[in-house]
Write a structure and sequence with these properties.
Layout (H helix, E strand, L loop, with lengths): L1 H28 L16 E5 L8 H13 L3 E4 L14 H13 L3 E6 L16 H5 L3 E3 L5 H10 L3 E3 L13 H13 L4 E5 L7 E11 H7 L11 E10 L1 H13 L8 E9 L11 H8 L7 E2 L13 E3 L2 E6 L3 E6 L1
Parallel strand pairs: 1-2, 1-3, 3-4, 7-8, 8-9, 9-10
Antiparallel strand pairs: 5-11, 6-13, 7-12, 12-13
Helix pairs in contact: 7-8, 8-9
């Protein structure tokens, strides 16, 4: 009888050991990691303008971006299919994928600037190979539909820039001067901080974590995919345009059900331009919707941050360790 007990114990011990090891590995995999920061730009570096999503009408449409980059001392090159057209897209999926893949692979290109948003990134995101990008990381810049690749980079552990794009630039617009200066700071490694007046419904508090997020509609569409975000220990940023209040509510509740707010460290709410003639038929304001979705959490919430589909589209460094401080009188955001 003792002999059989010894045999059972001998076979049981490795099983228990392997079980504990697997649990430990799972916990380690969930630990947040520091996001890799691409090298900051310097004069003479090469930046590429390409269009992986919506079509670009002409060179004149991206001329403000060209002028701005050249003013900063950068060498500007273009995607081969930048001006291609395929219905609403800037060329076929194959053409847009080719331009973006070549830019990711090319070690001499230090930044990739999406000419515009629209729709199209999600059609090519799963076919991109980031092997060479990981050897020579570079800044990827844009907002709106560019959120798709921002999400991908956040899952891979790389920083990127949520900011102005060539088609949204107006170099003569005094309002845009602030957002343009923040874009330069982020790209060239200058300190980027924000000190803003508080909003009436802000939730006070202090927190720290890597910044993730982007366009709310895109975040919502990514749920359940391999580009859905892990917001544990992170600060989430959201913005959107042209959505009805009931749909914003649907998206926020969906993020809540997906545990986006469960272990979140903060929420920055950018500009939301509601659907035209929306009024308030839903019965709740945007701020009411957001606060209801995060009810029961203890992290700070910032409303009316100047970023999104507006002229004053301030730059955010996604993946950067970010400090939030919200008081009765002001908001302080520091990128480290």
């Amino acid at each position: 009888m003792y002999k059989y007990l010894v045999i059972i114990l001998l076979f049981s011990v490795p099983v228990f050991s392997f079980g504990n090891t697997n649990n430990k590995l799972k916990k380690e995999e969930k630990k947040p990691c520091k996001y890799i920061k691409p090298a900051f730009l310097k004069k003479g570096d090469t930046i590429i303008i390409l269009a992986p999503a919506g079509k670009v009408s002409s060179k004149e449409a991206v001329e403000p971006g060209i002028k701005l980059a050249e003013k900063w001392g950068l060498h500007v090159v273009f995607g081969e299919h930048l001006y291609a057209k395929n219905n609403t897209f800037a060329g076929t999926d194959k053409e847009r994928l080719s331009d973006l893949q070549k830019a990711l692979d090319n070690p001499t290109i230090k930044a990739i600037w999406s000419a515009r948003g629209g729709y199209g990134y999600v059609r090519i995101i799963d076919d991109l190979d980031f092997t060479k990008f990981k050897k020579n990381p570079k800044w990827i810049i844009g907002y709106s539909d560019v959120t798709v690749i921002h999400n991908k980079l956040q899952t891979l552990g790389y920083q990127s820039i949520h900011g102005q794009m060539p088609l949204t630039l107006n170099l003569k617009d005094t309002i845009q001067k602030k957002s343009i200066s923040t874009l330069k700071k982020a790209l060239f490694g200058e300190k980027l901080n924000y000190n803003l007046p508080t909003s009436e419904k802000n939730k006070k508090g202090k927190s720290k974590g890597e910044l993730v997020g982007g366009n709310l509609s895109i975040l919502y569409s990514m749920l359940g995919s391999n580009t859905s975000l892990n917001t544990d220990g992170k600060i989430l940023f959201i913005e959107d345009v042209g959505e009805a209040l009931y749909h914003i509510d649907r998206m926020m509740i969906s993020l809540k059900r997906a545990d986006y707010f469960k272990n979140c460290k903060g929420l920055i709410v950018g500009n939301f331009r509601l659907k035209k003639n929306e009024g308030n038929k839903f019965g709740k304001t945007l701020k009411d919707i957001v606060l209801e979705a995060v009810e029961g959490t203890d992290f700070p919430v910032i409303f009316d941050f100047p970023a999104g589909h507006v002229d004053d589209n301030r730059t955010l460094i996604l993946g950067s360790e970010t400090k939030l401080k919200v008081t009765d009188s002001k908001v302080n955001i520091v990128f480290e």
